[in-house]
Design a protein that fits this description.
alpha/beta, five-stranded parallel β-sheet, 5 strands, binds thymidine-5'-diphosphate
Length: 221
């Protein structure tokens, strides 16, 4: 995409970042946000769950480790409620005004965490999205792929250092088996849609990953 086209609002793009806990996607997405802005692109950075004020309230239910007995379907519906609000309030208006939207997790996370790892079924999650939000799909998704042993080690270090609030660690407390399933699920859906997914080796050096993603974007957008 020509940068001036994007500025004039002729082109938009929806780019998502996915991966297991501790895969470094939040660091990378912040860097890419700054990088694209420095190149003159009109970009917004957002996330799920919690990209809106209502979403922040839903996030506090979803991630609180005290809420251990949330039913899987309830969990899914809360993520969907967060997503619908997020789309209507933030994502759709931004795309309609020609912006590049960078989103830290989106529907693939529901497909993988709720559909695959919790066992609700991948097709069921796709069907619900096709009914509720048929139009908004990412153009490009970076999957930061990492061994869950490394990811969880990093994530738990963040908790100990106080970089992750203790009220938001419900998923970090899940078993290694659960996180292995999450990784497997991401690789499975990435394999089905190789045009949209760009798999990044998240065990590499942080700067190397930044360069890989930014160079890829410069060639693609
Ligand atoms: P967050 O603190 O944003 O973690 P991370 O930095 O790893 O993205 O927490 C989001 C958690 O919610 C994460 O463990 C994945 C989970 N999740 C789902 O289970 N389904 C979803 O649809 C989304 C968006 C996230």
């Amino acid at each position: 995409m020509d940068k001036s086209d994007q500025k004039e609002g002729k082109k938009n793009m929806f780019i998502t970042f996915e991966g297991i806990e501790g895969s470094g996607k939040t660091t990378q997405i912040k860097y890419i946000n700054d990088f694209l802005k420095s190149k003159g692109y009109d970009v917004i950075l957002t996330r799920e769950p919690g990209g809106t004020e209502i979403g922040k309230k839903i996030r506090s239910i979803l991630l609180n480790p005290l809420n251990k007995n949330i039913n899987s379907l309830t969990e899914l519906l809360l993520y969907l409620a967060d997503r619908v609000q997020h789309i209507k309030e933030i994502i759709e208006p931004a795309l309609n005004s020609g912006k590049i939207v960078l989103c830290d997790r989106y529907m693939d996370a529901s497909v993988v965490y709720q559909g695959f790892a919790r066992g609700l079924g991948i097709d069921f999650i796709y069907q619900l999205h096709n009914i509720l939000i048929p139009d908004i799909r990412p153009n490009l998704t970076f999957l930061l792929d990492l061994d869950p042993n490394i990811g969880l080690f990093r994530a738990r270090k963040q908790i100990i250092n106080g970089d992750r609030p203790s009220k938001e660690i419900r998923f970090e407390e899940e078993s290694i088996l659960f996180h292995k399933k999450v990784r497997e699920g991401y690789l499975k859906i990435a394999g089905i849609d190789p045009c949209r997914f760009k798999i990044i080796d998240a065990s590499l050096d942080e700067n190397q990953i930044k360069n890989t993603i930014s160079n890829y974007l410069l060639e693609t957008i």
